[in-house]
């Protein structure tokens, strides 16, 4: 088993999800201080169940969640997963791989998982118990663990030794057994107390139970007698009732015969009245139908006028569309011409660019050839200069020799002073030339720097120009989109405004009334659709609820309404509904408050309306009894629940009416009237906003274009500066060559004069032959020097010519580049213009398509309107025919009414006489009913008595009939039983069951006490057995660890002695553990007197001693070797290598030696402040120098 992988996210400084893969052997984790290395060991400790936040270096558990940085927000949770190999079955779980996960949220909630299944913290502790990996184990040795092991109290060290000895599980089992033992003792005490209490209740309950049983026997006997006596009374009363019913039947038969005669008389009278009512009803219906036909005719005439108006509008729209298409086609032709011009422009530019490119390539080729030639000439010039210098030096030496001879012959001292002066002058001249050369180099550096800055500036301007071109394209695209949007909005606004102006959609009467001057003479406030307002999301619901009422007209009073109706009648303008403010009163729905908690209920619809205070009652009367719901599903659910008692509408416009009818679908005849005025205002505002945005965009486009031109000019200026810099650099290059030549020449002169001076000082008297030889040699060298000088002058002239040609070529290249940049800019502008023309062409083409589609639609609507007009005119002819037939029918109904009036008076007299005979028989019937009612009351009393006393019906009571003998004796016995029952006094009927329950519980508790005593004894034995096993195992393992500690200490320290001892050998299970060590060459001393390195090495020796006895699957060491020197580091690494065959090591370290011993190396960095990152590599890929 080994640690395979660690994953974490949001844990301390590891905000991003990371994964560390571990292999067998040693894994080292390195990084600078504060980079988050130790957070990895904290994460492992935390996921394994650590609950001490102090051990995790925090103040509260939420501190492990990433707290955020200046650039990153805090995370809401931290999660760590530990994946372990379980192929050896070290964990008691049937998986080859075990993944333990722990997650904590900032709210403080924690979750634990084993293989993604949720579990408890306790399950994780039990999983790692006795593996060395537990919370008290020795698998994780942190930075403070060394001090805890070495400097801590002896009692505190014990936990590590218990884990190493493998008694943690025994200790856990013992604690569990002791808990159970304590619980058993508590239960035994509690059950004993309860049993004692029950024992005192058993005897009194027994007496109460016997008394209750006697009462039950008496009660049952009395019940039988009482029920049979009641049945006897019921039988007598039933016989009397049957006799009375027979006599009553004869009376009823006579009454029915007389009543039938009376009803016949009344029926004849009713028939006559019905005939009269029918004639009156027929007359009224025919009158209403005639009026309705007249209204229908008026309505059809109004609709024909509206259709004609619509046809005129359609023709106008078609005409406008044709005109706009014509203008758009002209514009398309113009755009095609512009695009063709731009295409030609681009082609010409491309040709010029090709010529410029060819020119640049040609000039570059010339420049390269001239550069090669310049290098060749400079090499020749250098060789010639070297030869000249050598010849001059020889000549000078020879002349110096002659001079020396002459000086010796003439003025030796004067010649020496002259040579020294010449040396000084040559040195000064070389020094001045060197200073001048330094200044030229400085100037050259400055010019190169300036040239680079100009080039950078030119590149920046070019990038800026590219960005501006992209921005220009985006602005044009945005402008085109806004233009299209504006066109749609403006077209919609014009259509709606025209419809509102012509009051399209309103009834004929409403339009005529509101457009007349008469409306100004009354207190008219306007149409409901214009007076009531609401949010856009409620438009459909409000319009559905209002229905035809959306066209109602609001007036001040009933008088105003009457005057308006008279006006409509007089002018035959049809019908209009009026809402007088003085009489209309609102009413709230009875459902309010009852359905507030129903799903989807949004409130009373009138509450969603905003209007002037004067129209509040109007809104309440129209919408106050309508409930608003979000959708039809919730609306239907609520309507069913309350049995369709009230009206409901939904946001989508479905309506549910009282009684159960439901309406819905697409918009009705009044669709759009309620929100049309608001939409016109919104569209107008939107059009203004779009106009402003288009103006702003157009201004931005102009600004960007100006900036592009400005950038082009700036770039031209910079290119001119760069050309100037190139010329200056060429000049400085020539000056540098000259100054270098002067320096070399003057230095050679100084050297020559020094030689001459030496010769002068050295020379003596020479012969005339030597003078002749020297003169001959001087002439020979002078002749060669002159030839070389002439050759150099020719080379210099050639070099100057080549440099001038090179500068001309460079200037030509720069001019070509400038021209190419101009052409690129012009080409880009042409492309931008072409793209703009393409977009405008596409927009106009699309616009032509939309206009054509609209014209087609308008033409279709026009044809439909014409067809409707024909149909309406045909309907008018039919209405006139119907009106004529109604007038004929009305005359017939009037004749029928006159005949019915005559027969009614004759029938009334017959009905009065027959009614007196029926009344006499009814009086007799009332007497019989009174007697029958008395019998029924007596029978009901018997039935009620049986039910109230015994909850028995008559049929149920008959099942208890028995022989009771003489009825009087039975009544006497019943009275005696009542007396005996009263004599018993208070009866506790529950005592029977309570006695049974308490006695049974007492017996059960007595048995339970015996079981608890037995369990207590068994647990005491178990604790003793576990304690014995712990002592044996701990003692054995402790001796082995102590022996190993001594051996490991000597091996690591190279000598000395060490041992571990129990503070109290008599108490092996709770004794503290002492550590005594003596490093080589030192006396036995207290641990606190050891150096830091010795203390660390001692703790490491103890760890390895434990690992020898009980190897843990993996071990995490967090900078425990920090205090060791290089030699001890080597020993430490050697030991780790040896133990890594059985134990996997993860080491957090700064030490080079430890890194070299590792198989895998992880680096932790903090490139971003507060956020740790991970790097990994295998150590066989790394070489340490």
Write a brief structural summary:
By secondary structure, this protein is α/β, with parallel strands linked by helices. The chain is 69% helix and 10% strand.
Q: Which terms would index this structure?
A:
about 1200 residues; 20 helices; about 10% strand; six-stranded antiparallel sheet; single chain; alpha/beta; six-stranded mixed sheet
Give an account of the 3D structure.
The chain has 1185 residues and is of the alpha/beta class. Helices cover 69% and strands 10% of the residues. The protein contains 20 helices and 24 strands. The strands form six sheets. The chain has a six-stranded antiparallel beta sheet with strand order 2-1-4-5-6-7. A six-stranded mixed beta sheet has the order 8-21-22-3-23-24. Helix 6 packs antiparallel against helix 13 (673-762). The radius of gyration is 60 Å and the shape is flat. It starts with a strand and ends in a 7-residue tail after the last strand. The model is unreliable at 1181-1185 (pLDDT under 50).
